[in-house]
Amino acid sequence: MISLRRMRDSEFPGYLEYFIPDYASEIASNYRLSNSESLAQAKREIASDLPDGVNTIGHVLLCLVDPTESPEKAIGYLWYKQDLTMRRGIYQRFSHLSCLSRSRLR
């Protein structure tokens, strides 16, 4: 069983370590930018979108955890932006780490 919990301040640097290169790869692929240009773009966007890290108002960063195996270790992440006026969440990013096998996602 997989559960969600709020990301802690101490986990945010690890999230960035995973997210920025992954996002930069998508930018390079989609916009045909060089690796260095796409990495710089990814860093600019994350700094703009989440200036206060996990405490950025209106954004929710969650960790996916497997409470039966290792409840403290994140096996994935979910990031969404809250729209309280419309009473909805706007999906920003879902990521699962490679240590999570496909069979456990079903």
Topology:
Elements: E1 3-6, H1 12-31, H2 35-49, E2 59-66, E3 70-83, E4 88-96
Antiparallel strand pairs: 1-2, 2-3, 3-4
Please characterize this protein's 3D structure.
This protein has 106 residues and is of the alpha+beta class. The chain has a single domain (3-105), classed as 3-Layer(aba) Sandwich (Aminopeptidase), CATH 3.40.630. The chain is 33% helix and 33% strand. It has two helices and four strands. A four-stranded antiparallel beta sheet has the order 1-2-3-4, with no helix packed on it. A hairpin with a 3-residue loop joins strand 2 (59-66) and strand 3 (70-83).
Major sheet attributes = 4 strands, antiparallel
The coarse overall form would be: globular
How much of the sequence lies in strands comes to: 25-35%
Distance between the termini: 10 Å
State the CATH topology. Aminopeptidase
Mind telling me the C-alpha Rg?
Answer: 15 Å
Number of helices: 2
CATH architecture: 3-Layer(aba) Sandwich
Order of helices and strands: EHHEEE
Low-confidence stretches: 99-106
Tell me the total number of β-strands: 4
Number of structural units classed as domains = 1
Computed structural class: alpha+beta
Strand order of the largest sheet: 1-2-3-4
Observed structural traits:
106 residues, alpha+beta, Aminopeptidase, 2 helices, 4 strands, globular
What does this entry show, briefly?
By secondary structure, the chain is α+β, with helices and mostly antiparallel strands. The chain is built from 2 helices and 4 strands, in the order E-H-H-E-E-E.
